[in-house]
Amino acid sequence: MKCHSLAFAAALFSTASAFVQNVPKSVVPVQVTKDVFSLAMAEEVFDQEQFNAEGKEMRLKHLEEQAMYALKISCENYGNAVFPNAMIAGDVVITHLLHRLGYLKDGKCTIMCVDTFHLFPETMEFLKEIEEYYDFKAEVFCAEGVPVADKAAYDKKYGADLWKEDIEQYDKVCKVEPFQRGLKTLNTDCMINGRTRWQGFERAWIDLFENAPIGGGLAKCNPLAYWTLEDCFDYIAKYEVPHHPLHAKGYPSIGDAKDTIPIPEDGSTRFVDFKFEGDPTPWLDYASERKGRFVGLANKDGSTKTECGIHVAGAEKTFDRDLWEEGAVKGLASNDDAIEVTKSGKPAVIAVYAPWCQFCQKMEEEFAAFAEQSDLDVYKFRGDEEREFVEANLNTKSFPTINVVKADGSVVKYESEDRTVDAINAFVKEQL
Fold first, then answer.
1. Average pLDDT of 25-29?
2. Smallest Cα–Cα separation from 421: which of 382, 376, 365?
3. Can you spell out the DSSP letters for 64-94?
4. Where is the signal peptide (predicted)?
């Protein structure tokens, strides 16, 4: 007879142990002892599949309780918990756990989303679905100065190809800055997120709580720190949790549409109707969850890109201010102001810039020093908000662009990347 219960197997093993222990060793040969224990674990009395299934359920139950305890601390002990939700597998688990605890209904946890304007169309539609399902309203943040969901406004201000031109600046503009602005706007003191040790070596040592690398003192709760991706899908299946529709099309994790692919690429592994189709191994192996993310992208040093910058040290260094706020560099507030300078009949220098651009930031000190010692009027014009204008009138396709305006109104671009005082002075002298 087979044993179909973990409890029964444990009881049988306990009985066998007691029998051996109560009989004098002189009476029970060693071989008999071995045989009794072997009998308790033999195929005839042990259903391996059932044992594994019950063991998995025990594990998941413990992980659920642990995660909910961490979420309870986040939402009860801190004043204003915020959960930035990317709607991937771990995040929908956290959403469901927060719902079970009642924190979405009573407002003890606010869900925040960052729209990069490059997400899959299904992502923001799925957000609407879970808002209705769980009866909450997410706070959505996007690139600074752009209305929510207004892709045309984003393209006009930052350029549709920013991610091709400078992926680090794209991450800063579309992910890191709105993410941090969202946390500040919502006045959180505890950020909940779905990072896990299973996601890769960069995250292999995270704990349930840590300090976030954003604005000193912010607590960071990782309620799924010890979960695997398989645990997440087991939970989704157990409770029939609403999850991202692209899991059914072969995507283990979902980011920007421009650099996220199915794994394997033929889409043969899928999660459909709360169960896997195909071989789940390519998704569930260690550090495999994010293999389909950041595809084709590299960091400045040539290394493979694995993070967008939100969770790394130094993430707080974004553009919270304008450039050249004080000093001799004068601001041009409008297109008309810029045209007036070109038509004034007076030589001048205009720097076309974007405050978020790292190259503009790097030249800030030198250009300020140049303006202080120059006999010419030196101006700044924020070009990321008027891309068509600066391209047509101020030689600008990327930032920064320094122009010398001649007395006849012609505008000559400084082509060098040497933006020191001496180099700029030499170019101005050459043109005038």
1. 48
2. 365
3. HHHHHHHHHIIIIISS-EEEE---SHHHHHH
4. 1-18
In the predicted model, is pLDDT for residue 78 greater than 50?
yes
Residue 250: pLDDT above 50?
A: yes
Domain boundaries, the chain: 6-46, 55-319, 330-431
Per the DSSP assignment, residues forming a β-bridge with 191 are 82, 220
Question: Taking a C-beta distance cutoff of 8 angstroms, is the pair 283, 269 a contact?
Answer: yes
Q: Rounded to 5 degrees, what angle do the CA atoms 399, 400, 404 make?
A: 130
- In this prediction, residue 154 carries a pLDDT of 93
Distance spanning both ends of the chain, measured CA to CA: 100
Of all residues in the chain, the percent with pLDDT exceeding 90 is 67
Q: Is 128 exposed, middle or buried (0-12, 13-18, 19+ CB in 10 A)?
A: exposed
Residue 79: what pLDDT?
A: 76
Asked whether residue 20 carries a pLDDT value surpassing 50, the answer given is no
Of the candidates 276, 286, 287, 285, the one whose C-alpha atom is nearest the C-alpha of residue 250 is: 276
Q: Cis bond leading into 84, ω under 30°?
A: no
* Confidence at residue 355, expressed as pLDDT on a 0 to 100 scale: 85
Q: For 330-431, CATH number?
A: 3.40.30.10
Question: What whole-number distance in Å separates Cα of residue 113 and Cα of residue 87?
Answer: 9
The H or E element spanning position 271 is: strand 270-272
**In DSSP terms, which residues pair with 112 in a beta bridge?**
84, 139
- The first and second tokens of residue 256, run together, are 């920007």
Amino acid identity for residue 261 in this structure? I
Return the bridge partners of 298, or none.
304
* Both structure tokens of 123: 């992502």
Q: What is the DSSP letter of 406?
A: P
Which residue from 106, 177, 97 is spatially nearest to 144, judged by alpha carbons?
Answer: 177
